[in-house]
């Protein structure tokens, strides 16, 4: 590395050459030299070329300037405090810092993690993971123009809902279907279309709040509908609905108690009872199913959850549900039901604002198509594969990972392999849990350090693929249900970094 100025350096880089590099400014020289290389020398160093190739000259220069300014500030501060200068400020050391800084700045804030929380459909971790067929369809939709709103048979303009409507009707027995951005949007759009300025009858036991500020009473107000609460928190009877029904009523609505259960002295009115009343008064009956599954989960050994088909068959005129909960697809909200009501919903200008993009449709179609072979579903649909994973299988995995994790964590922690319970998540079957297995980490009794679990959680989060577990009862619980066999190697590979 010669000390000659880089002849290719931009004017901007040259301006910096007046200070450090050896040629100190008068004031600095008086106070004793701050030895930092000039920015142009850093940029023209051969070892900087890969950084410039990856991040571009403009960004690399800017980052180098900021780094030098910070180093200079730190050096001046330590001199002022009478401390010895710290750290290596040679060009190789500065380039190493620059590389780290550029890598960190350019790392996506949206990152993959290991979900070892035991909650399979974890809203904060992005809910359903999609099968490869959906991943490939999305990749293709990203690269190619698509017949999103174009009917290939007729060469005329089409409707994007048509791409998945037939499949949805086949799987639910409904007359018509439409799709929006998420289930909250589906409920909003349905209420605004059917009940703006009119009353919607809902049981007090079903005025739920789903996480993330989705509350039935609030969404009702925003949709311009008037909530007519009936019954009480624990008990609502058919006569409560009957007494509230009148010319001012636009809709009767049932809401799935997704994330809680009312037990004890309770009574709610189920569809077979409510449907005849709604028919008698000619008031449409809507059900917000929340998770909305398309198959009977009991056939896979899971607890029963009312299916969309059962809800339609039970007399619901409209049913809303999420695409990324039990269904196992991309984030979206699906509305199925009576053709005349769906037609009204599709005409609402809000539908345009809430519609889904081509990536969602590309991902949803192959997921729905898997439901045509329900017997093969647990092998194909990622969500169901995870939910039906046998505890014995998860236990084998836990036992294989026990020693590597213990070795990486060292003597400060004790790792054991223990049974635990997973949850489905996203409000599906909140009370039911799935037998699972995993690793439990406790602070070692001897030489206990304070906040050992907090430190451990932080170390796991700092890994290249952050590991997210659950702290309870003075232990960190790592439920291995969602650690797929093909991710296992990546999990063990990075354990070595934990020891550092
Ligand atoms: C989850 C849920 C919603 C909201 O669905 P998103 O797809 O998250 O918008 C609405 N209603 C019920 C009953 C739910 O469980």
Automatic annotation (TrEMBL):
What residue stretches are annotated with the L-seryl-tRNA selenium transferase N-terminal domain? 35-72
Please report a single Pfam family linked to this protein. Answer: SelA
Q: For the region Disordered, what residue ranges are annotated? A: 1-24
Function according to Swiss-Prot or TrEMBL: Converts seryl-tRNA(Sec) to selenocysteinyl-tRNA(Sec) required for selenoprotein biosynthesis.
Enzyme Commission number(s) of this protein: 2.9.1.1
Identify the keywords attached in UniProt to this record, alphabetized.
Cytoplasm, Protein biosynthesis, Pyridoxal phosphate, Selenium, Transferase
Cofactor dependency:
pyridoxal 5'-phosphate
Top EC group: transferase
Q: Per the record, what are the reactions this protein catalyses? A: L-seryl-tRNA(Sec) + selenophosphate + H(+) = L-selenocysteinyl-tRNA(Sec) + phosphate
Compositionally skewed regions (Basic and acidic residues) per UniProt: 1-16
Q: Specify where it is mainly localized.
A: cytoplasm
Entry protein name: L-seryl-tRNA(Sec) selenium transferase
- State which pathway it belongs to: Aminoacyl-tRNA biosynthesis; selenocysteinyl-tRNA(Sec) biosynthesis; selenocysteinyl-tRNA(Sec) from L-seryl-tRNA(Sec) (bacterial route): step 1/1
- Superkingdom assignment: Bacteria
Annotated Gene Ontology cellular component terms: cytoplasm
Instruction: Enumerate the Gene Ontology biological process terms.
Output: conversion of seryl-tRNAsec to selenocys-tRNAsec; selenocysteine incorporation
| N6-(pyridoxal phosphate)lysine, modified sites | 325
State its location(s). Answer: Cytoplasm
Query: What HAMAP family does UniProt report for this protein, alphabetically?
Result: SelA
């Amino acid at each position: 590395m010669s000390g000659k100025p880089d002849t290719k350096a931009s004017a901007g880089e040259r301006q910096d050459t007046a200070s450090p590099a050896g040629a100190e400014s008068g004031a600095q020289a008086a106070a004793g030299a701050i030895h930092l290389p000039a920015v142009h020398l850093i940029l023209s160093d051969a070892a900087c070329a890969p950084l410039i190739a990856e991040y571009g000259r403009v960004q690399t220069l800017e980052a180098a300037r900021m780094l030098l300014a910070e180093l200079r500030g730190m050096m001046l501060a330590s001199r002022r405090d009478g401390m010895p200068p710290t750290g290596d400020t040679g060009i190789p050391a500065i380039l190493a810092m620059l590389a780290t800084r550029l890598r960190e700045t350019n790392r996506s804030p949206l990152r993959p993690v290991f979900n070892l929380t035991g909650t399979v459909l974890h809203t904060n971790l992005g809910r359903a993971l999609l099968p490869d067929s959906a991943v490939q369809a999305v990749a293709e939709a990203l690269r190619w123009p698509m017949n999103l709103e174009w009917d290939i048979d007729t060469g005329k303009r089409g409707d994007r809902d048509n791409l998945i409507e037939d499949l949805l009707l086949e799987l639910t027995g409904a007359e018509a279907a439409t799709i929006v951005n998420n289930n909250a949007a589906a409920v909003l759009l349905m209420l605004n279309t059917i009940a703006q300025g009119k009353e919607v009858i809902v049981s007090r036991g079903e005025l739920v709040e789903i996480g993330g500020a989705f509350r039935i009473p609030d969404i009702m107000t925003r949709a311009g509908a008037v909530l007519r609460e009936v019954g009480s928190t624990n008990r609502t009877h058919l006569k409560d609905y009957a007494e509230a029904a009148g010319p001012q009523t636009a809709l009767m609505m049932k809401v799935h108690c997704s994330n809680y259960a009312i037990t004890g002295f309770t009574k709610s009115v189920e569809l077979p009872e409510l449907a005849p009343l709604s028919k008698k008064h000619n008031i449409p009956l809507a059900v917000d199913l929340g998770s909305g599954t398309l198959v009977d989960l009991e056939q896979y050994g899971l607890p029963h959850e009312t299916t969309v088909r059962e809800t339609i068959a039970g007399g619901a005129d409209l049913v809303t549900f999420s695409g990324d909960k039990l269904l196992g697809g991309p984030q979206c909200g699906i509305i199925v039901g009576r053709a005349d009501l769906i037609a009204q919903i599709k005409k609402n200008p809000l539908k345009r604002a809430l519609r889904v993009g081509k990536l969602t449709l590309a991902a949803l179609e192959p997921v729905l198509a898997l439901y045509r072979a329900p017997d093969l579903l647990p092998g194909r649909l990622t969500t169901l594969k995870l939910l039906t994973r046998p505890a014995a299988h998860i236990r084998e995995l836990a036992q294989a990972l026990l020693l590597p994790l213990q070795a990486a964590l060292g003597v400060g922690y004790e790792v054991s392999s223990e049974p635990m319970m997973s949850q489905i998540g996203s409000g599906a079957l909140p009370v039911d849990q799935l037998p699972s297995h995993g690793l439990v980490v406790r602070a070692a009794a001897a030489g206990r350090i304070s906040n050992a679990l907090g430190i451990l959680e932080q170390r796991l989060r700092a890994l290249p693929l952050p590991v997210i577990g659950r702290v309870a009862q003075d232990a960190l619980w790592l439920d291995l249900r969602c650690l797929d066999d093909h991710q296992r190697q990546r999990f063990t590979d990075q354990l070595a970094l934990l020891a550092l």
